[in-house]
Write a structure and sequence with these properties.
The structure is a single chain. The protein is α/β, with parallel strands linked by helices. The chain has twelve helices and eight strands. Helix 1 (7-19) packs antiparallel against helix 6 (210-223) and helix 8 (237-243) packs parallel to helix 10. Residues 1-23, 27-42 and 321-325 have low confidence and may be disordered.
Amino acid sequence: MKPIRSLNRLWFLGWLWLLGWVGLSGTAAVGQAVQRPPEPLPGKTDAMDYGVFHSASLGREVPYAVSLPPSYRTSPERRYPLVIFLHGLFNDERDWERRGVQAALDALRAKGQVGEFIVAIPRGENSFYINARQGERYEDAIVQDFLPFIERRYRTLGTRAGRLMAGISMGGYGALLIAFKHPQLFAGVAAHCAAIFTEVPRPPQGADDRIGTWRYGLATKLYGDPPDPEFFDQHSPLTLARRQAAALRQLKIYFDVGSEDRYRFDVGNQRLHETLESLGIPHEFTLASGGHGWAFLLARSEAAFGFCWRTLSPSVLPRPVKALK
């Protein structure tokens, strides 16, 4: 692993330190370090599997985590639906477990509210999961490298009906982007606090425009310097919804956002809701009380995982019943 995961990470850290912000799905603080629980042990646990896969699109090994359903290790004949989950900015694949999402899923399963499916989380660095205009090909890494790897390595169903994209913050944007661009691959998409911009970020209006400075700096890393409006549109869930309207009517869509989202991504999510509604594309949207990040997802876990299971459960064939002697 590189000492600092990438030059992009160093660039982002420098900007956000100056601006007094931390990651899009972390905790806002000024001049304060983010305290994290100890790292989980590498390798296998009862619920989690950690490893690396080779991405030809990125030209390197990429870490990942997999959440395995309770019966996975004891029922080697069974195959399971798959959720690809994308983490947020300055997070990684281990945040699924360290932030309590696995524990929330376990609790819902213990109550019988959610069935069994695999969750696979690739490390996305700070990529927004796009093939950047001047950078790396993370969309290709997910679709062409990670998804096939997971379906070879783990006992997934390997069908569109048994696949779902999901993500939080940067990853919520990435989940919508990939599912909207590749609806033939997925039965549904679930996004939380998705980082949706309604228009190309413009240069900051002044030295004290911290959010404007941050947004524009981010846009130049993703969409070109200066940001290319056409390239931005090609990677906007709002534009993709209009271009892919017919195909998206066959996709189950869920997204939620906090009414107190500190990055004002409630505006972009509300705009997506209005766009889908105007196009007659069925979807589930909730503007809920709360802020931005993992705590919001945990508060919405029952609704979020309930959607995932409702979408994936039709793909699971009934288990054969042994004939009585």
